[in-house]
């Protein structure tokens, strides 16, 4: 299934989508099915959020990332645990305010197909989960959990950098009423020689650059496979 995850309107551009489609086609990856783009599903996300609100599981949050970092005593770590500042305030929705879903204490267990049995407690990892940010964008964690449930995704293969997201996505899926959870496989990342992640922001070579340099699709796939 090809799913364009363009939930962040500020960062997603049509030329990026077309480039992605072109890279996949050149590599020989032809989707069996194309799902609706996340930017086409706001009504569904609103419906799910409204249900969480009715059940008392979602609340308005006025905290910025800086606010949370100052309370937590860190300086913009990659992940900061939200301390629940707005949970009991009963704030009204409005500009500059987002929505969070309550993550009560408790472990989520799952068997990763690479790492084996694992447990994660979303309440201590990330705190109450942000599902719509202060700009009105749906978050990755929320959108993919709703989409995976609606689209019947049974196997999620992704990089180790998203392993920590699994527990909170399972918790959210349970709150949404999903009965059968997907299986997860988290694989090692392709890294640069210095151990850093590949990054488009740092102008690291992507599929298009490798293709321009004369590599074939089989060679690119083979190189990636050998590194994993």
The major beta sheet can be summarized as: 3 strands, antiparallel
Number of helices: 8
The assigned structural class equals alpha+beta
Total strands: the figure is 7
* Share of helix, binned: 25-40%
String of helices and strands: HHEHEEEHEHEHEHH
Sequence of strands across the biggest β-sheet: 1-2-5
Span of the ends, CA to CA: 23 Å
The overall pLDDT average reads 90
Short description:
With 228 residues, this protein is of the alpha+beta class. The protein is built from eight helices and seven strands; from the N terminus they run ααβαβββαβαβαβαα.
Primary descriptors:
228 residues; alpha+beta; three-stranded antiparallel sheet; 7 strands
Describe the overall structure:
There is one protein chain. This protein is an alpha+beta fold. The chain has a domain at about 1-35. Helices cover about 35% and strands about 15% of the residues. The strands form 3 sheets. It has a 3-stranded antiparallel sheet. Strands 3-4 form a two-stranded antiparallel ribbon. The longest helix is centred in the first third of the chain and has 14 residues, at about 15-25. The protein is globular. It starts with 13 loop residues before the first helix and ends with a helix. The mean pLDDT is about 90.
């Amino acid at each position: 299934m090809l799913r364009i995850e363009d939930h962040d309107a500020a960062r997603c551009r049509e030329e990026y989508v077309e480039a992605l489609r072109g890279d996949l086609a050149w590599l020989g990856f032809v989707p069996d099915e194309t799902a609706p783009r996340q930017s086409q599903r706001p009504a569904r996300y609103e419906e799910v959020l409204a249900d969480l609100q009715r059940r008392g599981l979602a609340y308005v949050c006025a905290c910025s990332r800086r606010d949370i970092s100052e309370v937590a005593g860190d300086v913009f770590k990659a992940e900061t645990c939200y301390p629940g500042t707005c949970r009991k305030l009963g704030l009204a929705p409005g500009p500059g305010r987002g929505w969070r879903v309550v993550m009560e204490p408790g472990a989520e267990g799952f068997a990763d197909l690479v790492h084996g049995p694992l447990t994660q407690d979303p309440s201590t990892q990330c705190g109450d989960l942000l599902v719509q940010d202060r700009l009105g964008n749906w978050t990755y964690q929320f959108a993919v959990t709703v989409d995976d449930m609606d689209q019947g995704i049974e196997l999620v293969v992704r990089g180790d950098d998203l392993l920590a997201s699994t527990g909170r996505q399972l918790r959210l899926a349970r709150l949404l009423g999903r009965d059968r959870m997907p299986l997860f496989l988290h694989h090692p990342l392709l890294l640069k020689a210095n151990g850093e992640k590949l990054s488009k922001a740092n102008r690291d070579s992507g599929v298009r650059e490798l293709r321009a340099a004369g590599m074939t699709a089989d060679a690119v796939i083979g190189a990636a496979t050998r590194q994993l």
